[in-house]
Structure formats: C-alpha cells, structure tokens
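Morning, I've got a small favour to ask if you have a moment. Here's the protein in full, and shout if anything looks odd to you:
***
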Amino acid sequence: MKTVLITGATDGIGLATASALLALDWRVLVHGRSESRARSAAHNLSTAGGAAIPVWGDFTRLREVATLADQVGTLAPSLSVLINNAGVYDKQRAVTEDGFERTFAVNYLAHFLLTRRLLPCLLAAPGARVIHVSSGTHHAGQLDFTDLQFTTRYDAYQAYCNSKLANVLFSNALAARYLSKQLTSNALHPGVIATKLLRVGFGADGAPVASGAETSVHLATSSALEARTGGYFSEGRTAKAARAAGDLDLAERLWAVSETLTAGFG
C-alpha cells in the first residue's frame, strides 16, 4: 500500500484529494493545522477505504512543521508521495510568530522546510513523487528579494501570486537537484475551484472541489508520469508555466534564501 502525505487535508482540495486516494486504497496521512482538526477529518474519511491517519502542525510555526516532519518520519519511513497543498490568502498583512509574512510562510516556506526534512523518507520509496499545488496566478508573481515579506506596501494579491511562483520555482529546483535520485517533482494549477480561499480572497465561486483534486491525483497515480519531473500541469495535462518559473538561477537564489530563513528549524 502506497503512503501519501497531503498538507491542508482537512477541507477543500486537500480533503477531496485525500478522499480520492483513499478510494484507491492508499494510506493517507491527513494533515491539519491542529490535532483536533486532523483527527476529525481522518475520522470522517475513514469510510472512504484505504487508511486515513491524522498528522498535524501549524504552518505559521516552523517549529511545528519540523515536529510534523518527525511525526511523519515515524509513521512513514518510506513515503511514496508528498502533496504540498496547504494555502492561505490574507487580505491584510499578518506576521507569523517566526516573523514571516503569513502568505509566504504558509504557502511556500513551511512546505520548503517540510519537504527538505522529509527527503530521507521520500528517497527511501522507489519512484517517490513530490507534488506542489500552485496556481495559475503564479504568472503574475514577481519576487523582490529585497522585500520578500512585503514589509512595505503590502498587496494581498501580489503576495499570493508570489507565493505560488515560489511553489513552482521550488518544484523545478527540487526536480533538478534530484534528477538522478528517482525522485520526481511537479507543480500544478488545480483550476478555479469553489474553496474557502477563493471565496475569501477573490469573492468568487468556482468548480466543485472534487475537480480541483483531479490533477493532484493524476500526478500521484499515473504510471505514465513515473519519470516526469520538473513539469507544470493543469487539467491533467502539461501546461505552460510562467517564464520566470523556468529560471533555474532564480530558483536557486530562492532556495539559498529559504535555507537561511529556515536554518534554525532543522
């Protein structure tokens, strides 16, 4: 039985992805920001088949992300798939207890730390896959390394776009670094989906959450994608990413900065 960790799996696209993979008899580590939320979601998913196991950690606290990685390492020393799905949209600038702008921290930096901490588990699983749930809005991303945290002139939409560009850059950098290690890394746009994030951030409605999970499930399960890495997908097909997303120098610069920002958390 393959094991997958899905971040942000207590509602929205993450929950729908967990349900779909459980129906395929996968072992799913259901991540929530708190123990109670993770346990409740795993319990509700338990009728879907497979095995739903709660794990937890608040992505606004990097020490909890490090603890989450340890928890996952104990439960799944061989991790077949990691789906970096959790995300937020903050209309007003908020700062985490670690001092990071919250959109950047939750959507990107926490996933950077978690993925790197879980690399031993992923490399222990033949043909492991890392899947990054980005967004078509990454096309509007423009990283300013002098102010990644939007300490001046905060713009909610730009902060969100930047975090989603960071997701794709990280995906591509990871793919390049582990090309010879039988570890694949791909990013995706889930579509315009009727999630809480869409309603809060954009005041809009969208397609059912089940459809938002389809590309994540495809990337996790398709035998045709066993060797595919460094790609960007939408609606289950290869899509065109932003030009900036393919800039490996930019990706490596972001990686180096991210290493420094997360250095105190393992």
Remarks:
- The CA atoms of residues 8 and 86 lie 4 Å apart.
